[in-house]
From TrEMBL:
It comes from Salix udensis. This is Flap endonuclease GEN-like 1. Keywords: DNA damage, DNA repair, Endonuclease, Hydrolase, Magnesium, Metal-binding, Nuclease, Nucleus. Residues 544-554 have a biased composition (Basic and acidic residues). The lineage of its organism: Eukaryota, Viridiplantae, Streptophyta, Embryophyta, Tracheophyta. Pfam families: XPG_I, XPG_N. GO terms for cellular component: nucleus. It is found in: Nucleus. GO terms for molecular function: 5'-flap endonuclease activity; metal ion binding.
């Protein structure tokens, strides 16, 4: 949830939709709870065994291999007593129970339910087998994600809790849609500051007014729009102090709002202050109606003999007296509005909550500080143990697990080859053979790589979808725009058979292949250019041949009419009758109808030609 009052809708216009390479070679902190809670949606859509493990399995592989990110997973620690009280209040509110008399012991933290904690523990075990770094927060996971982002340990956070900005996050990825051209919905704090003129303490003040995960109610009668307008009246350095002063009543609220309104609304006026003068009821300008009958006023701009013009509907006088009166009314309106807001704030008990403010401003949400050198490392997966783990929990066959892990293993192999070229094999069995073609998926290009198997081990066979492609013409560029299921299960590797040899096909990033095998990329591009030049020459030769034999009915590139292949007796009869009719019209030219045009069979109406056809 995060900040209440539909806070994400306020930030929605300033979201950036980034492409699939946005997180490539970047570190990203992932709120693991954000993934786990989505397993309920998976259960509603399809019945699968332990969907939280399935989601974590496929999303980790896609995030690491498909998007090229380096994920750091963060789990929740012990929730605060405020969070526990708010969670219980939310449960009773959704259940329709009155929570006015609800009491929770101070200083007592309520752990999450055991079922959720078990799901978290299983996902953590899976991620550790993947070799991913997993950190545990002291309290909220999004708080530690924000701290990692603010201190530069990661480049972005993946979480749906909007209060990550209150904890100091700089870039938050709210939503990941892998089956689109722009899968990442990103929010940058710099855009929020520039477009909405809101700093971090402004956001904290808004959360205190409209409610948050630790205080669901906020201030009664103040919504997001009203809170946004109120906090903009103060600078970042004074907004929290002003909330304390207004709530405590230590300074008169009217003096505070008068000072603010004076800075916002008042503008310098050239003429000195004066009382409002009388205005003409005819034209609406300063002066009397009797005087304007004799001579027009200076505002109307008409001749003296014509007099003033009658004012139109919705007329507003722009004289100094009227402008001053309108400004005073607007100022009084704003003062009254600020007074009402201040009265609502002062009427709220225990506002603002200093514990919530200190929690948002704290920068110690993990077992390290900003001065510590946090070491984040990514290890190679423990394949054998991971296969046994998924077999035990998901009842998956070992070959299926190895098959789905192959994109992650190939990404690790290519990164190692790009960093330090050496003679090694993918998974100890496959060697790089060649680049088959360029593949375009959702507007993103990638190479289809052929891996040749060198050894055969009975216990490590990878089951794939065998596809006989030796007789199929291979295109240079293949576009695919398919929709995967909501569990983010990616396309499995396929088998390509060529001249009796079996190859494994995977989709790899083009820059990663260029860094690992630059010579192979140059060879592929050279062969591609040769094929393109031959194709251009062949098409030019065929075009010349078709020009020379354009009259031939046996052309292979031009589809002739059906009547040119099968001559019909009716068509011949039509031509004969049309010729007779044309000759008859020529004989009639010497008669009295010489002024008529020459009749042609092609100019006859369709109805006449139809009657001639069936004569």
């Amino acid at each position: 949830m995060g900040v209440g009052g539909k806070f994400w809708d306020l930030l929605k216009p300033y979201a950036r939709h980034e492409g699939p390479d946005y997180l490539r070679e970047k570190r990203v902190a992932v709120d693991l709870s954000y993934w786990i809670v989505q397993h309920e949606t998976a259960i509603k859509a399809t019945h699968v065994r332990k969907p939280h493990l399935r989601l974590t399995f496929f999303r980790t592989i896609n995030l690491f291999s498909k998007f090229g990110a380096l994920p750091v997973f963060v789990v929740d620690g012990t929730p605060s007593s405020l969070k526990s009280r708010a969670r219980i209040a939310r449960f009773f509110r959704f259940s329709g129970v009155d929570v006015s008399g609800l009491l929770v012991a101070e200083g007592v933290s309520s752990e999450r339910n055991k079922t959720f904690l078990k799901c978290v523990q299983e996902c953590v075990e899976l991620l550790e087998l993947f070799g991913m770094p997993v950190l545990k927060a002291n309290g909220e996971a999004e708080a530690l994600c924000a701290q990692l982002n603010a201190e530069g340990h990661v480049d972005a956070c993946i979480t749906a809790d909007s209060d990550a900005f209150l904890f100091g996050a700089k870039c938050v990825i709210k939503c990941v849609k892998p089956n689109t051209k722009e899968p990442f919905e990103c929010y940058h704090i710099s855009d929020v500051e520039d477009c909405l003129d809101l700093k971090r303490k402004h956001l904290i003040a808004i959360s205190l007014l409209v409610g948050n995960d630790h205080d669901l109610n906020g201030v009664q009668g103040i919504g997001l729009e009203k809170a946004l307008r109120f906090v903009r009246s103060f600078s970042e350095d004074e907004i929290l102090n002003q909330l304390h002063e207004i709530a405590n009543g230590s300074s008169p609220s009217l003096q505070i709002v008068s000072k603010v309104v004076d800075e916002i609304m008042l503008c310098p006026v050239a003429s000195p202050a004066m009382s409002k003068t009388s205005h003409c009821s005819l034209c609406g300008h300063p002066g009397s109606k009797r005087a304007h009958f004799k001579s027009s006023c200076e505002y109307c701009g008409t001749s003296t003999s014509q007099g003033c013009t009658r004012k139109g509907e919705g007329f507003k006088c722009n004289c100094s007296s009227c402008n001053k009166g309108r400004k005073e009314k607007e100022q009084q309106k704003h003062e009254n509005w600020h007074v009402k807001v201040c009265n609502k704030i002062s009427a709220e008990p225990n506002f603002p909550n200093d514990d919530i403010i200190q929690m948002y401003l704290c920068n110690k949400h993990g077992n390290f500080t900003a001065d510590d050198d946090l070491c984040l490392s990514w290890r190679c997966p423990d394949i054998d143990i991971l296969v046994d783990f998924m077999d035990f929990h998901q009842h998956w066959e070992p070959s299926y697990v190895r098959q789905r892990m192959l994109p992650m293993l190939s990404t690790i192999y290519l990164r190692e080859m790009a960093a330090k070229p050496q003679k090694s094999m993918l998974y100890g069995q496959y060697v790089f053979d060649s680049i088959q073609r360029v593949k375009i998926r959702y507007g993103h290009q990638s190479y289809v790589i052929r891996w040749r198997k060198m050894t055969s081990t009975a216990g490590s066979i990878i089951r794939t979808n065998s596809v006989e492609e030796s007789d199929k013409p291979q295109e240079e560029i293949v576009e695919i725009d398919e929709f995967n299921d909501h569990l983010d299960e990616d396309t499995a590797p396929q088998i390509h058979i060529d001249d009796g040899c079996c190859f494994l096909l995977t989709d790899e990033n083009m820059e990663l292949i260029r860094g690992a095998f630059p010579e192979e990329v140059e060879r592929f591009l050279h062969e591609k250019e040769l094929k393109a030049s031959k194709r251009r020459k062949g098409s030019g030769f065929k075009n010349e041949g078709s020009d020379e034999k354009s009259e031939s009915p046996k052309s292979k590139r031009v589809q002739l009419k059906l009547t040119e292949f099968y001559q019909s007796a009716k068509v011949a009869a039509i031509h004969t009758k049309q010729g007779d009719l044309a000759s008859y019209s020529e004989n009639q030219e010497d008669g009295p109808s010489k002024e008529k045009k020459k009749v042609s069979g092609s100019n006859l109406p369709k109805s006449v030609r139809r009657r001639l056809l069936f004569m």
